[in-house]
Specification:
Blueprint lengths: L1 H25 L10 E3 L5 H10 L9 E8 L10 E14 L6 E2 L1 H9 L5 E3 L7 E3 L1 E2 L4 H4 L5 E8 L2 H10 L13 E10 L4 H9 L3 H4 L3 H4 L4 E6 L19 H6 L4 E3 L10 H14 L2 E3 L1 E2 L2 H4 L3 E5 L2 E9 L5 E2 L5 E3 L3 H14 L2 E7 L13 H4 L8 H11 L3 E4 L8 E4 L2 E4 L4 E3 L10 E10 L2 E11 L7 E2 L2 H13 L4
């Protein structure tokens, strides 16, 4: 009897054990080995050990396949069992002074395959090397093209893919995106007066002047110009005072920041200058470098957007129109003031831009662009020394906003100097050199300047400003490069 009971128990134990063992085996128990990392055939051999190490302490249910995929645009995986994890974005760069603007996709692919030194990760993009467009697509404007996007394609079970996304997070480089990259376009002299007032009376519409440039300038986060003319009911064909209808021109270019360091803002009197400040405030435009009195004029402009903090200073240096008291006018330059404010801003970790209305060159040529006015130091005083001293104080960018003909530019120590941007809106078409201007688009990411994109504008006797074509822009930049200070 006892033996029978023992036999029955053994049978039951064996049966139950067999049932659960079979179930365990079928459901992936110890009889099945854990999942492994499987690399694609073209996966770099020198990177395999690194990836194996990353997964060494993770248990996978099934095999997980890894492969590198490159794309000319952003990929979004919607298929079950696979995920594209963005590892990096590669972009083409060139020398800071290069006149090249764009390369073809085929050229870029060759550069990548040959591991050309002019291909860099966007995480290592710096303003001392020029970012190039790819087939006319500029990465810092579009973010979804103009680069070669490097993905790690992960294929496997959804559970294992979730583990991979966690493990591979440290491999992903931070990439600039629209939400965290601030674009700030700076333009040169705007002076709505004289001939522009005459043209306004003829066409009757402020949008006429911005028709060919407004969409471009308004496409950036912030748009700046230095307007030398106050709005006035007394505006005429013989003074530098702005017809009130020019407010529509400024709205059309998306104006966010107006610089009032110019020497003509008092041409139609203090009342108009004060009313102009109020008009800008009503338009929602921020002001720098001028104001209703010296205290207002001397205030720096603090910009905080998309995780970037910028301090902008603007001064008038010996061109007239400055205020030192309770009267309206431009902010008078003081080395002591500049040094203190730059030091304070850099102490906070801000990026610093300093604009300067310097002495004006007036040696224009009626037949060709004047070489004299293209140089830095073409006017009275030590322009090179003054502008470089601002970089020595800690400024990141120094821009001259008084030149009516574009002046040269340079990379100096850890900063960048643009000695004079030229005219963007004015009536001076009779001198070839004064019809052109250099525009700058600064890109800030991670609270740092990562790039300044240059572009050119031009107008003729019709006074409609437009972008330069490549055939115009290349010789324009080449001429500026001829006079880069030593």
């Amino acid at each position: 009897m006892k033996k029978a009971i023992i036999g029955i128990l053994c049978f039951l134990i064996a049966g139950v054990g067999g049932f659960f063992s079979l179930k365990f085996f079928r459901e992936g128990g110890f009889s099945l080995k854990p999942g492994e990392i499987v690399f694609s055939e073209n996966f770099p051999e020198d990177e395999k050990d690194e990836y194996l190490s990353l997964f060494s302490e993770k248990e996978l249910k099934k095999d997980l396949s890894l492969s590198y995929e490159f794309s000319d645009s952003i990929l979004n995986s919607s298929n079950a069992g696979e995920r594209f994890i963005l590892i990096d974005a590669l972009v083409p760069v060139d020398d800071f002074y290069s006149t090249k603007e764009s390369i073809s996709q085929a050229e870029f692919d060759t550069m990548i395959n040959e591991k050309n030194i002019n291909v860099v990760s966007v995480s290592k993009l710096t303003p001392d090397r020029k970012l190039l467009q790819v087939d006319g697509k500029y990465f810092l404007d579009l973010f979804s093209s103009g680069a070669k996007f490097q993905y790690l394609k992960v294929s496997g079970s959804d559970e294992d893919i979730a583990v991979a996304e966690q493990v591979l997070a440290e491999k992903q480089k931070k990439v600039p995106e629209k939400k965290n990259t601030l674009s700030f376009v700076q333009t040169g002299v705007t002076a709505f007066g004289r001939g522009m007032n005459a043209m306004m009376n003829e066409v009757g519409d402020g949008l006429y002047f911005s028709e060919k440039i407004g969409t471009f300038l308004s496409s950036f986060d912030l748009t700046h110009t230095s307007n030398e003319a106050s709005f006035s009911d007394s505006a005429s064909e013989s003074n530098i005072c702005a017809d009130n209808r020019f407010a529509e021109t400024l709205k059309a270019i998306g104006l966010d920041i107006v610089e009032l360091t110019g020497n003509h803002n008092l041409d139609c009197g203090a009342v108009d200058a004060i009313n102009t400040v109020d008009k800008y405030t009503e338009m929602g435009v921020q002001i720098v470098g001028g104001g209703k009195n010296a205290e207002e004029a001397g205030k720096e402009l603090e910009i905080s957007q998309k995780g970037n903090i910028i301090t902008m200073l603007a001064y008038n240096q010996s061109t007239g129109g400055a205020t030192t008291d309770a009267n309206p006018g431009a902010n008078q330059y003081s080395e002591e003031d500049a040094r203190a404010k730059i030091s304070e801003a850099k102490g906070r970790g801000d990026v610093v831009i300093v604009d300067m209305q310097y002495y004006e060159c007036a040696e224009y040529d009626t037949e060709v662009e004047s070489d004299a006015c293209t140089r830095a130091d073409s006017s009275a005083g030590d322009q090179i020394g003054v502008f470089r001293s601002l970089i020595d104080m800690g400024a990141d960018i120094v821009v001259g906003t008084s030149a009516h003909q574009t002046q040269t530019y340079e990379k100096y120590k850890n900063g960048f100097i643009y000695y004079g941007l030229g005219n963007i809106f004015f009536d001076q078409y009779w001198w070839p050199g004064t019809t052109k201007s250099l525009g700058l688009v600064h890109y800030f990411w991670g609270n740092s300047l990562v790039q300044t994109r240059r572009f050119g504008t031009i107008y003729d006797e019709n006074l409609q400003t437009r972008l330069m074509g490549e055939d115009e822009f290349v010789p324009f930049i080449e001429k500026l490069n001829e006079y880069t200070p030593e």
